[in-house]
Amino acid sequence: MIPNFKPQLIKRRSGPPPAKPAPSSKPPQNSSTRQSNTAPPSSRFKLTASNKSRTASPAARAESSRYLSPPRPRVQTKKRKVSPSAAILWGSDSDDESDGSHDDSASDRKRQKTSSSVEPAFHHIWSLKPDHQRRIRVHPKPSEQPTSNSSSTDGPILPARLIDSIKLTRGAWAKHYKSPFPDLDRNLIVSLQYPSPGRREEFEIICPPPTSDDVNPLDDIFYTINEIIQHYLPAQLDKDLKLSDDADGIVRRLKRAVTKNQPDEFRDALEKFNTIIKDNLESISDQIDSMHSLPLDLVNRITIQTYQRTVSHRAHLLRRVKDKEFTYGELKYKLAHKIFEQTGLNSKSVFVDLGSGVGNVVLQAALQTGAESYGIEVLETPADFALDQASELRARAKLWNISLGLIQLWHGDFLASPEIDAVLHRADVVLVNNKVFPQDTNFELLNKFLDLKAGAKIVSLESFGAGAGKQGSRNENNIFNIFDEELFESGTNMVSWTDAAVEYYIATKRC
Hints:
Strand order of the largest sheet: 1-9-10-8-7-4-5-6
Oligomer: single chain
CATH superfamily of the domain at 309-509: Vaccinia Virus protein VP39
Catalytic activity: L-lysyl(79)-[histone H3] + 3 S-adenosyl-L-methionine = N(6),N(6),N(6)-trimethyl-L-lysyl(79)-[histone H3] + 3 S-adenosyl-L-homocysteine + 3 H(+)
Distance between the termini: 44 Å
Pfam families: DOT1
CATH class of the domain at 309-509: Alpha Beta
Number of helices: 12
Shape: globular
Domain DOT1: 203-511
Strand content: 5-15%
Number of strands: 10
Structural class: alpha/beta
GO biological process, one term: DNA repair
CATH topology of the domain at 309-509: Rossmann fold
Helix content: 25-40%
CATH architecture of the domain at 309-509: 3-Layer(aba) Sandwich
Radius of gyration: 23 Å
């Protein structure tokens, strides 16, 4: 059963919010935090009591719901509390996938563990509002590539570097792999043509043990072919060639060759598919040009590949980072999708993730929406992994013939970063997982948010509404009174630290 994913605006608040439990000793994962015993900085805002209520936007809710999948039962409107004790460390959710349902797990961007040849298909109806200003297909002219609007945002940008699948199945971690074609003297090596004029990707056809969570090259090929057929080839071509036919389609032929130990048939079937792609690149280009948004299942396939090739085999290092007590959890890709939808993120937007971890949400924003996407992470290891992911995504997106928004990632403290300060002036959407931030950190963030432009949106896991008030009380001159805040519930299985639904907040700056 598909989990109830549709977020709901569940209530307005007026007056003081309910008392919150004492903060956990574990600040949030993927978030730069700074503990301080000093008093909050002075402010021109005086702190006096107020009963001002938060405002909702029914019109905006109705508009965003047009692009959701078919209605699901409403989540409970009763407020749920997620205990800070549910916090987990980096990478501790890497083994929580179950066979055939990896799309619903945080480890989608870790190692795959599935035997199905088709990824769950219900995600094809998950698309953002069409963005007619975005040119999704890669265009060769350098002048058409995204550039930064501000030289002050310059930061480390690694060149695009494609890591072939074959590199993942060689070395010490691949010693337990076995060939599905045992009669061969050496493992079968094949290549796959993506829907672009670019080079092919090489795969070594070997399989991990059934109980292993290591990457499976066969599944990667099967899933990738299905995405290409579904989203890149004209429907009539698919029908004429019976590429997705259940009895004799290309994936079915490949699986049959594996089952019957026929490596030549496997190679021939894949070469036939590669030839079809090469011969129909013009039609594929037309098909991409007709797209005005990317289906979420396609976005997920590309980000899974990116994570597998850069982070998956070293995910254990994320558990060894210094100051790992300052980590909490991460948003899964479906919740990121919903946030992009609710905030109207598009190719003309600027997105900022304060505490970006290994960069998952930043990369998804650049790929799925084409937005300028920025992130900063205080921990060195995840920050370095984020740069590697960005490098791989730049190259892999070209294979898939998809242009990206600008990606910029930094290692540093978001409270002391001039680069982030410069970007925040232009930001349209700011994401911050402040689930267990101390009060002084929230207060400093609020002061930074004063520089946001009118209409900018802040997405947070805890409300900033009580960030400057004593014992959680709101005040008439509280900084946050210049924001209108809405409270949502995520639906189940949307964050890494719990399967339960969690609350999140979207605040819009009025002036």
